Amino acid sequence: MNKIPHAGPGLWIQIQHRFGPRMMEWFMAFHTLMFGLVLLASPDLFDQPAWAGFRAVFPSGAALGWIMMALGIARIGGLIVNGARRHVTPMIRQVSAGVGCLIWFGIVYGFASSGVASTWLAIYPLFGIGELVNIHRAAHDQGETRHGKAA
Q1: What are all long-range contacts of 85-91, with beta carbons under 8 Å and residues at least 24 apart?
Q2: From CA 57, how far away is CA 41, in angstroms rounded?
Q3: What is the DSSP letter of 147?
Q4: Rg (CA), the chain
Q5: How far is residue 117's CA from residue 99's CA, in Å, rounded to a whole number?
Q6: What percent of the chain has pLDDT over 90?
Q7: Which DSSP category does 86 fall into?
Q8: Is the pLDDT at 33 greater than 70, yes or no?
Q9: In terms of pTM, does the model score above 0.70?
Q10: What's the Cα-to-Cα distance from 12 to each of 6, 85, 89, rounded to whole Å?
């Protein structure tokens, strides 16, 4: 079997074919990146009462912002590599979704620790649950890859 990655138009077709089922993973990667950008663009954000739980863990909003940006970019890179390869690499996706799950439930913990109820209650817990679904999907893809059913 040829293990050379697709090139040219074949590469684009392969990425498009895999994008739909992995759209939530892309969304979460960009959301992580954007969360970091917002923290970096809003230096006073950590001063708000809702961020008290985060201040106990991170020295500044900028520190968390850079971490979130790096993790978002790394996940986007992993998804690009996964989409460009002829044979899927679900382990990259499993690890990325696992890290994402820790991120979003960590954010839930940070906001919950502040004692301030806000719209975070309707957003970030669902992101964490979504990452559990992403882990399951990537694990399913790994099972298909192992048993010769995945492209």
Answers
A1: 85/5, 86/2, 86/3, 86/4, 86/5, 86/6, 86/14, 86/151, 87/3, 87/145, 87/150, 87/151, 88/18, 88/141, 88/145, 88/150, 88/151, 90/138, 90/139, 90/141, 90/142, 90/145, 91/138, 91/142
A2: 20
A3: T
A4: 18
A5: 25
A6: 64
A7: S
A8: yes
A9: yes
A10: 8, 11, 17
What does the DSSP 8-state code read for residue 59? S
With 0-12 CB in 10 A as exposed, 13-18 as middle and 19+ as buried, what is 141? buried
**Cβ(78)–Cβ(96) under 8 Å?**
yes
Mean pLDDT (whole number) for 19-30: 85
Tally of CA atoms within 13 A in the half-sphere of 67 that contains its CB: 12
Give the pLDDT band (50/70/90) at residue 113: very high
85 pLDDT more than 50: yes
